[in-house]
Amino acid sequence: MQHYSMNLKLKIWRQKNINDQGHFEEYDVNNISSEMSFLEMIDVLNERLISEGSDSIAFDHDCREGICGMCSMVINGQPHGPWKGTTTCQLHMRAFKDGDQITIEPFRANAFPVVKDLMVSRTAFDRIIQAGGYISVNTGNAVDGNTLPIDKDMADESFAAAACIGCGACVAACKNASAMLFVSAKVSHLALLPQGAPERKQRVVSMIAQMDKEGFGSCTNTYACEAECPKEISVLNIARLNREYLNANLSGQ
Amino acid sequence: MALTGIFLVVFLVVHCYVNANVFFPNAEENFNRAAHFMGSNLLIRITEIGLFAGFILHIFQGYQLEIKNRASRKSRYAVTAGNKTSKWYSRSMAILGTLILLFLIIHLAHFWVPSRFGGLDEVYYDGEKFHNLYLKMKNTFAAPWVVIVYVLGCISLSWHLLHGVQSAAQTLGWTNKKYFPMIRNIGIVFSILVPLIFALMPLALYFGLQLDLENITLLF
To answer: Taking a C-beta distance cutoff of 8 angstroms, is the pair A219, A212 a contact?
Structure first.
């Protein structure tokens, strides 16, 4: 692929703290390499802002290899930007061309309050996991790999759901700010495995109750979540979540 | 939403089936007899109460859901992905539903109110008295604006169902890897076919078209 450099106009959301109203500010960045990642481009801008003595742009990031789920940002209306199945940190500047204007906003949802600039608090997800997204086992040595036979299809489907990194792009993309794709992935990956069976019914009821408490919207099946998910989690997990919830309620859980 | 939606889908099938009489020979008598049956059978009258309850619940829950969901994101995005990530009609169920509601009010005022509270001419078949709902329909659809409103109502219904059918199945947890494509296709066929048959009714009456079954030879 041809390497090139570009000049860009950025429109970035600035917000001092959780109580601030927030506003957009415009920045010109020049000589950006097409080989850079999107976050490196913001690093370049931040270096400049710091050297000018102004406040740098706060954004979340950690591993920068697409697996930790920390990076966020809505880039030109799309969580994690224009590339499919890609986190912001893995989005490269070759997705843009010279002269582009890029609007960068934080994930917006009542349940994800903006902490500063592009950083949002996603602790609502942590509380949903705490409500039941785990299995209770006595610690000790790991069991031998093949002592518990698991159907290959089940294992694969469970693994596909477990690929969820909990970044919150599904909530950011959903017009209702619904967390159903996240919760469905977390419920599915345990519901499909024998290890998840003992707490299966109680888990789904508790996690949904916590999800509702956090102020997420309700799912209306527009499937924007699946389209934006960097791990391409299937919306069929949402159908499974609905089944699990119905079954648990019907059996009096 | 899903349960009442599926219930209303079943109603559409029945409504469509009964009304399809207008396309066939001897439309007037057959249609009036069918309408009489629907209006006089006790079981159907009880179901009618359930139908109204279904409509009211579906409409009420729909608006409640829309209000809750809009309130879940107080600060709006400056730029949205729009049609890149989801279908416009899946995001517009409340607006499409409102259009259908407006249509429904007109539709009930046209036919249901006179059927139940009087105002229809009478007609005799084999010495038995029937309401001539067919004549009422023929007169109503003589006005071009009514035909246009009905066709637009059916188009709104079509878009609403295109999202609604598969969405209801998803909400009820009926979809999985194996059945999702089939359910989606059933939804597409249903959402085109049923509103199309409904839309053809005012058009057929306006233009005076009828299927000529006399010339079709059946199996026997």
So the answer is: no
- Distance of CA A28 to CAs A43, A91, B78, Å? 14, 20, 19
A56-88 burial: b if 16+ Cβ within 10 Å, else e: ebbbbbeebebebbbbbbbbbbbbbbebeebbb
Average pLDDT over chain A reads: 95
Residue B182: CB atoms within 10 Å: 11
Query: Cβ–Cβ of B87/A218 closer than 8 Å?
Result: no
Cite the beta strand spans of A67-211 per DSSP E. Answer: 74-75, 78-79, 101-105, 114-116, 119-120
Do residues A110 and A139 both lie within one domain? Answer: no
Chain B residues in contact with A110 (beta carbon < 8 A): 71-74
Residue ranges of the domains in chain B?
Answer: 2-71+87-210
Q: Are residues A73 and A183 in the same domain?
A: no
Mean pLDDT score, A41-50: 97
Same domain assignment for residues A148 and A104: no
pLDDT-based confidence at residue B219 (cuts at 50, 70, 90)? very low
CA nearest to B82 within chain A:
A77
Nearest CB partner across the interface for A215, out of B72, B79, B175: B72
Number of neighbouring beta carbons within 10 Å of residue B145: 7
Please provide the average confidence, as pLDDT, over all residues in chain B: 92
8 A C-beta contact, residue B193 and residue B158: no
User: For residue A13, what is the nearest residue in chain B, using CA coordinates?
Assistant: B78
d(CA B33, CA A197) in angstroms, rounded, equals 57
| Structural domain that includes position A11 | 5-115
pLDDT at A245 over 90: yes
Q: How many residues does chain B have?
A: 220
ipTM: 0.90
Pick the CATH number of B2-71+87-210 from 3.40.1350.10, 1.10.760.10, 1.20.1300.10, 3.40.50.1360: 1.20.1300.10
Domains of chain A: total: 2
Least confident of A143-152, A169-178, B79-88: A143-152
Residue A141: the pLDDT is 84
Question: A110 to chain B, minimum CA–CA distance in Å?
Answer: 5
A108 touches chain B (CB under 8 A): yes
For chain A, positions 158-217, list CB contacts with chain B under 8 A.
Answer: 173, 175-178, 215-217
Cβ of A236 within 8 Å of Cβ of B79? The answer is no
Instruction: Tell which of A222, A235, A237 to mutate to test the B interface (max B CBs under 10 Å).
Output: A222
pLDDT digits (tens, 9 = 90+) for B10-43: 999 999 998 888 888 888 898 999 999 998 899 9
Residue B124 has pLDDT above 50, yes or no: yes
Tokens of residue B104, six digits: 């429904």
In a shared domain, residues A82 and A168: no
